[in-house]
């Protein structure tokens, strides 16, 4: 995997992404100027998180999530954060009840329903994003990171 991704992080590939990242930074500064200049201010962690995810979306999929432009966090960010919570549940429960058939069934019953539903939403959204990327050769692909092959059909 490291060798597969190394081209995306070469000096040349990173330099090619500078304008793309600068565009997101400019949008961040603009939006913070609009929303955080009020008397009550705003939560900068949320804005940095939005910028980070928009940059990741643009680099990985050739399409930002629109969190900066829309001034709201994309649903997938919440889903991904829920995935980390679900993973924590599964990891802890696996230590105590194992991974047998009944253990997996019990884990599904013990993990909160919302986390299980978001786990499925995450899987479907990821598949859809990668399928769109893999089947649209004319789309805006960013550097080597997005051109790693057809993952959706793997």
Quick structural gist:
By secondary structure, this protein is mainly alpha-helical. Helix content is 69%, strand content 0%.
Mean of residue pLDDT?
Answer: 81
Low-confidence stretches at least 5 residues in length (pLDDT < 50)? 140-154
**Helicity level:** 55-70%
Report the total helices: 8
**Helix and strand element order:** HHHHHHHH
For the CA atoms, what is the radius of gyration?
A: 19 Å
Taking the alpha carbons of the first and last residues, their distance comes to 15 Å
| Shape verdict | globular
- SS-derived structural category: mainly alpha
Query: How many domain regions?
Result: 1
The main pleated sheet reads as: none
Share in β-strands: under 5%
What's the β-strand tally? 0
